[in-house]
Design brief:
Helix content is 31%, strand content 24%. By secondary structure, the chain is of the alpha/beta class. It folds into two domains: 124 residues, Rossmann fold (3-Layer(aba) Sandwich), CATH 3.40.50; 220 residues, Dihydrodipicolinate Reductase, domain 2. A nine-stranded mixed sheet has the order 14-13-12-11-7-10-9-8-15, covered by helices on one side. InterPro entries: Gfo/Idh/MocA-like_OxRdtase_N, Gfo/Idh/MocA_oxidoreduct, GFO_IDH_MocA-like_dom, NAD(P)-bd_dom_sf.
């Protein structure tokens, strides 16, 4: 590889996603990147994270960090409602930006962020990391015609009890929404990426809060996050503050006639389920992430008059192969884009399409009816 300029990297947000995904992946870039500084308005978070990661400078004011340093890349790892504010500040400081999902909560905000990127002559991408790895292989299968014409998909992540019991995921004014914002955005992006990014037409959806705002509901199936670990110990969860949905369900329609059914929960009285179903007129594909199978991707089709099931051996999707490979692959890819001129696999129109589905989903749930693309914030 040619000698490319070392990337000077800053991070805004010292919480869960920074400590578990971004910081380890940045460090794995080795000499290609210099992890220079991190900012968080919680001094205790900075003290905690310094025990695990070699970060020379810490700041409780992100704007001070941006003023005092000249970054090539800034990672935005903060609450959803701050993504736009911090991304624009980083772009104006002269940095390229990798922003945690969702990029924004409305299409209008996302477009304003891209306008700032254009003015600055910098790149802005959302951390839509679930499209990396196995879903890249699924995309190739679809492009090769293995499924035929794709016309329907189901995506779901059902946690029977799995409310994140750390941070502010459960507070609407900080996070904007619940499991659809937190998890569903990943599955939505990966599916749209795999099927060629058809454009949104409409969404009919519902959001529910039935369990997680009760004191007798168990929470946090994600494992203990206290003690001597890189995770910041949870301190601020209170079910009385729960103000987002604990279950979201709906159907999105697209301009090629395709439909996608979405189901995402943090708390639901059904068995755990996790994965993708993508259906074409030649075959269907099921990527069952919750099965524990060594090869979790199966094709369902027919050979003549006989039905056939075929397990695919995709090494990167094998059980045990998912050591946060999505973030790692995406952060390395973004470095290749900036240092080597590689074409970015995350396109602006794809990011805007994902935000449009999410905005329409929540608006449909709020209004209790189907919402069309023309009703969204950038069209009003």
């Amino acid at each position: 590889m040619s000698q490319a300029k070392q990337l000077k990297v800053g991070v805004i947000g010292a919480g869960f996603i920074a400590s578990t995904a971004h910081l380890p992946s940045i460090l794995k870039l080795g000499d290609r990147a210099e992890l220079t500084a991190i900012a968080d308005n919680r001094p205790e978070a900075l003290e905690h994270i310094k025990k695990y990661f070699p970060i020379p400078k810490t700041y409780t004011d992100p704007y001070e960090m941006l003023r005092e340093n000249k970054f090539d890349v800034v990672h935005i790892c903060t609450a959803n409602n701050t993504h736009k504010e911090f991304a624009i500040a980083a772009l104006r400081s002269g940095a390229n930006v990798l922003c945690e999902k969702p990029l924004a909560l409305t299409v209008k905000d996302a477009k304003e962020m891209f306008e700032e990127a254009d003015r600055a002559g910098k790149k802005l991408i959302a951390c839509q990391n679930n499209r990396m790895g196995p879903m890249q292989e699924v995309k190739k299968l679809i492009e090769d015609g293995v499924l035929g014409q794709v016309y329907y998909a189901e995506i779901e992540n059902i946690r029977r009890r799995g409310v994140p019991a750390w941070g502010r995921f459960h507070v609407k004014e900080d996070n904007g929404g619940g499991p659809l914002c937190d998890v569903g955005v990943h599955y939505l992006d990966a599916t749209l990426f795999a099927v060629g990014n058809p454009k949104l037409v409409s969404v009919s959806a519902s959001t529910f809060t039935k369990i997680a705002d009760r004191g007798d509901a168990s929470v946090d199936t994600m494992g203990a996050m206290t003690g001597d670990t890189p995770y910041l110990p949870r301190k601020d969860y209170d079910y009385h503050d729960f103000s987002v949905e604990d279950f979201a369900s709906g159907i999105a329609r697209f301009d090629n006639g395709m439909q996608i059914m979405l189901k995402f929960s943090w708390a639901l009285n059904l068995p755990r389920n996790d994965g993708y179903k993508i259906v074409g007129d030649k075959a269907g594909l099921v990527y069952d992430k919750s099965s524990g199978a060594q090869n979790p991707i199966t094709l369902y089709g027919a050979e003549g008059k006989h039905l056939s099931d075929e397990n695919l051996e995709i090494a990167i999707a094998k059980k045990g192969a998912m050591h946060d490979i999505g973030h790692e692959m995406l952060i390395h890819h973004f470095a290749d884009v900036l240092q080597n001129g590689e074409e970015c696999v995350i396109k602006r129109e794809e990011m805007l399409n994902v935000v449009a589905v999410m905005e329409a989903f929540y608006l449909s749930g709020q209004l209790g009816r189907e919402v069309t693309r023309e009703e969204l914030s950038d069209c009003r």
